[in-house]
Amino acid sequence: MCKQYYIYNCAARTIVVDFADRLAQARTGTGKTLAFLIPLLQNIISVDPQLEHRSGRRSGSASDIRAIIISPTRELAEQIAVEAKKVTRNTGVIVQTAVGGSAKSEGLRRIKNEGCHILVGTPGRLNDILSDPYSQVRAPNLSAFVLDEADRLLDQGFAPEIQAIQHLLPDRKDMDRQTLLYSATVPHEVLQIVRKTMKSNFQYVRTVQEGEQQTHEKVPQKLVNVGGFENLMPALVELCKQEISGGAGTTDSPARPFKAIVYFSATADVVLATTVLRNLKTPGQSLFHQHPLHPARIIEMHARLSQMQRTRAADSFRRAETGIMLSSDVTARGMDFPNVTHVIQIGLPPSEEQYVHRVGRTARGDKTGEGWILITSFESREIRHKLPKMPLVQDNSLETAKVDMRKDAQLPEGTAQTLTQVQDATKMAPRGMKVASYVAALGVYNWIPNKQILLDAMNDRAKYGWGMEQPPMVGLGLATKLGLSRLQGINIGREDRTDGGDGDSSGGFGGRDASRGGFRGGSRGGGGFDRERGNSSLFGGGYGGSRGGGGFGRERGNNSEFGGGYGDAGRSWYKDSDGRGRGPGPTYDRNDRGTDRKSRYGARPPGDGGSRGSDRGGFSRGGAGGDRGGRGGGRGFSKRDGGRESRYSQ
């Protein structure tokens, strides 16, 4: 077995890699992937010189795996595989992937038909393939075992699967192999596990000298205290607007297009925040007009997406000149996205190590970048203990962070506009997303010792941030487990998961079963920003209506472009004073809108609704915001949802 030395320069630091086991620590963005790929390839070719040159047709076997590379996330595994294929392009070495979220049978077929020398994958899928007696994937000639982001792989979450994979590999007494562990951070507790994973004489290589700055220490990092949870989204939107309009330059470098990754601790928050940002619009304009965050592309990334969706999202963000990717921690480690100017973290990260990895997505190589973290007043004390060594500088430039949204106030025009935009965009989000975010937050912030303060803060978020009169329901079992079941303000019960939005059980933003109006439309032509059975237009039914109801779109019975409440040849059903439904009401020109609807946050453009909701339709006659909804249209934009006078004037 060849034990030659191979020297590779990584970010002006020389790492000497021989056949001994090694734990290597290097700054983020300094080329750790190539630091293990090149020596690994050299060792494979040294053992089998025939693989040095590419033949006419690459040939291999499913049982001829020479190296296994493991990463904690699918995205990182795919990224490593892409780099490995570049390195091995002109050789006979074959690279394959085995990651979750993709069809196992397809991956096995590719390995069997094409062969495999380097297998890159995630712990779960690799364990599944290697332990499957029918897969025929074996590694009797394995010479290298690599763990990228080793600190994450060796923590208590992944450690059992890593150990199971090692037990499926050849005994090191019979077939010696090299184990390489790479990471930007190496916590003390992980170092203890490393000693059990590697040979006793393993070497610990650090490419950062004592006293030398880590990558995250070179990044300007700003801390914003936003007060309540309801201020987080307005502050994020204001920050994005500010950086897009002002460019992403620093005093030492020219402005660059704004390109940011926004990290949340819960997937439910990623989903809701993405929906809110995409729903943003300038007051008085429709969703078809230029987006307030133009030209930034808004991209969603989290573990609930399919592998195809995640790959497409990552590729889209890489190609984007300017963009905002809202992400869970699936992209926090090892992922290389070019020209990221900002990393914005919403709330406290799970650990100091995770904070470092997140910040490491910017200022990679010789580029510059900024780090921002937005926290609530409940987290301001905890951050001193969780991130004591981080060079955080307090920033007070965001006006929306200072607004007490529980009180009336007079605000500058720009601040009022941002609050209004976020409020309207949030109301358009389905209720289920808000419920999921509410419940997830109760778990994420359960470390707050005073549970009554936590519950009150979350209820304020639901009321003042999302416009909900009652907080979402929490199951008795979960509430008991979280220590919330006996607190004042807890809403025990089970949410109707078919509800689509913020209305009551028969309408509003969703409606029960979405069959009587609401944003998602009805089963028989109901309204909403979605196409349902019976809708013949892209925007069917608008804000309500089960059959032929009013709103933005053609309904069953309506044949107009903007039928219903207002539109060409649209018809609206209305209700008589005695409660009995009446036939088709008058039609309205699309410009015949009410003028008395105002916002909590300053003057609003003309309203979109009627003074009364209809029995089977959206906004009935043009007017103000829907003071009362009928059975079909639900509450629509009720008085509480935008029909009242402004609390915040400009």
| Global morphology | elongated
Assign the structural class, choosing from mainly alpha, mainly beta, alpha/beta, alpha+beta, or little secondary structure.
alpha/beta
Question: What's the Cα radius of gyration?
Answer: 28 Å
Total number of helices: 16
Task: Order the strands across the largest sheet as they lie in space.
Answer: 5-6-4-7-8-3-9
How much helicity do the residues have? 25-40%
Gross CATH architecture of the largest domain: 3-Layer(aba) Sandwich
Work out the count of structural domains. Answer: 4
Mean pLDDT: 76
Oligomerization state: single chain
CATH homologous superfamily label of the largest domain: P-loop containing nucleotide triphosphate hydrolases
State the end-to-end CA separation.
Answer: 77 Å
Quick one: CATH class of the largest domain? Alpha Beta
Structure overview:
There is one protein chain. With 650 residues, the chain is an alpha/beta fold. It has 4 domains: 6-206, P-loop containing nucleotide triphosphate hydrolases (Rossmann fold, 3-Layer(aba) Sandwich), CATH 3.40.50.300; 215-427, Rossmann fold, CATH 3.40.50; 431-495; 503-650, no CATH class. The protein has helices at 32-47, 74-87, 104-114, 123-131, 150-153, 159-168, 188-197, 232-246, 267-279, 307-319, 352-359, 382-386, 413-427, 431-444, 451-465, 476-481, and strands at residues 6-10, 13-17, 22-25, 67-70, 95-98, 118-121, 144-148, 178-183, 203-206, 221-225, 259-263, 297-301, 323-327, 342-346, 370-375, 392-394, 409-410, 573-575, 581-584, 648-649. The strands form 5 sheets. Strands 5-6-4-7-8-3-9 form a 7-stranded parallel β-sheet. Strand 12 (297-301), helix 10 (307-319) and strand 13 form a beta-alpha-beta unit. Helix 1 packs across helix 2, helix 4 packs parallel to helix 6 and helix 9 crosses helix 14 (431-444). The chain starts with 5 loop residues before the first strand and ends with a strand. The model is unreliable at 1-16 and 499-650 (pLDDT under 50).
